[in-house]
Amino acid sequence: MSPSTPSSSTKERKKYNELLNSVKLTEKISDIEIEEKLKKLRRLIVLYGIPTSTPNLRPLVWKLLLKVHDLDSHQYLKLVSKGRSSVADKIRNDASRTLKSDVEFQRIVGESKLIRLLDAFAWRTEEKSDGESLYVQGMNVLAAPFLYVQPTELEAFNCFSRFIELTCPLYVLPTLEGVHRGLRLVDKCLQIVDNKLYSHLRRHNLTAEIYAFPCLCRFLLTNTSDKFTAVLTLSACTPPLDQVLCLWDFLLAFGPHMNVLCVIAQVLLMRDDLLSSSSPMKLLRMFPPLDAQPIISIAVTLVRDIPEDVSVVANKYLGIPLTTLRYTMIWLDIVLTHGKTIRM
C-alpha cells in the first residue's frame, strides 16, 4: 500500500462513492445484498485504504461496516440525562488521560464529550445487566476514535456501543478475559510465523503478556509510569492518531481479531533490532510510532500462515462468530492468491 497520487485518489473516491450511493439509494435491500456490498467495501479498504481527501467518507464507511443505520436520539438523551454513572470516578480518571498530548483530538473531542458518552454507555449496560456496569479501563481509548471520526456524539455513541457489544464482547469483561486470550494468541501466532524471533524473546523471558500488554504509551498517558496495552486498545494507544484511524479502517472491515496479527506485524517490523539486542525488552517497552500501511500489509500476508486450529481458538478470543473468522481468512487468501496484494 502506498500513498495515492491525486489521480488515483480521485478514482478511489469515485469507487467508494458509487458503492455508498448504491446503498443509500436502495430503499429495500436484502441481507444478502448488504453482505455483497460489504464484501466490495472490504476489498476497497484492503487494497486502497479510505481516501482522506473526502472528510465525510470514513464516518459513512465505519457506520456501514458496523451496520449502524437507525440513530435513536431520544434513547441517548435519556441516558445522558441520568448524569453521573456508578463508575463515574473511573471514567473521569481515564478520560483525563486519553490522548492528552494530541492537540487535534483535544480540540475536536475534548474530555467532556468522552465522559458524557462513557457515562451513557455505563447506564446502558447497567440497564441490560441487572444494575452492573460493564465499563472497564480501556474503553475510553476505544471510544476516542469514534468521537473523533463521527460528526455527532449520537453517531459516535451508536458506533461505539455496537462495536463493543457485538464485535468484541469478551474483550471488555472486567476480567479482561478476551484480552488475555488474545495475548496468548499473539505468542502462538508469532511462534508459527517466526519461530526464531519467538525463541529469542522467550530466552529473555518475554511473552506477549509482558511486552504487548503493559507497553508504556507516551501518547495515551501523561504519567509515563502508567501502563496500557496495544492489544486491549486495538493499537489506539500508539501514535500518531491519523495512522490509528487507517489501521482501524482495516480492523472494522475484517474484525478486531485481526489485531493479533497487527500486533505481531509491529513486532516483526522491529525484528532485526530485536534479534541483535541482548535486552529486547528495552526496545519493546514502547512500540515505534504507528505506520498503518506496512502493518496491514504484513498482517494480511500472515493470514496464510495461520492454521485452521488456531483460527478456531481465535473464535474464543473476542467471542465473535467462527464464520466471521473463516470468512476473513478465506477471503484475504483469495485476494492474495489472485495477485491483488496490498501495494507496498
How many β-strand runs? 0
Helix content: 55-70%
Within the CATH hierarchy, at the fold level, what is the topology of the largest domain? Cyclin A, domain 1
The share of residues in extended strands comes to under 5%
Outline the biggest β-sheet. none
CATH architecture descriptor of the largest domain: Orthogonal Bundle
Return the structural class. Answer: mainly alpha
Sum up the overall morphology in one term: globular
Q: Give the count of helical stretches.
A: 19
- The CATH homologous superfamily name of the largest domain equals Ypt/Rab-GAP domain of gyp1p, domain 3
Order of helix and strand elements from N to C terminus: HHHHHHHHHHHHHHHHHHH
Any low-confidence stretches, pLDDT <50, length ≥5? 214-229, 315-327, 333-344
Radius of gyration: 20 Å
End-to-end distance: 4 Å
What would CATH call the class of the largest domain? Mainly Alpha
The tally of domains stands at 3
Overall mean pLDDT score? 79
What does the model show?
Mean pLDDT is 79; it is low at 214-229, 315-327 and 333-344. The chain is mainly alpha-helical. It has 3 domains: 6-54; 73-167, putative rabgap domain of human tbc1 domain family member 14 like domains (Helicase, Ruva Protein, domain 3); 177-337, Orthogonal Bundle (Cyclin A, domain 1), CATH 1.10.472.80. Helix 5 runs antiparallel to helix 7. The protein is globular. The longest helix is centred in the first third of the chain and has 19 residues, at 6-24. It has helices at residues 6-24, 31-48, 57-66, 73-81, 88-95, 103-108, 110-128, 139-149, 153-167, 177-193, 195-203, 208-211, 241-254, 259-268, 271-275, 280-284, 292-302, 308-318, 322-337.
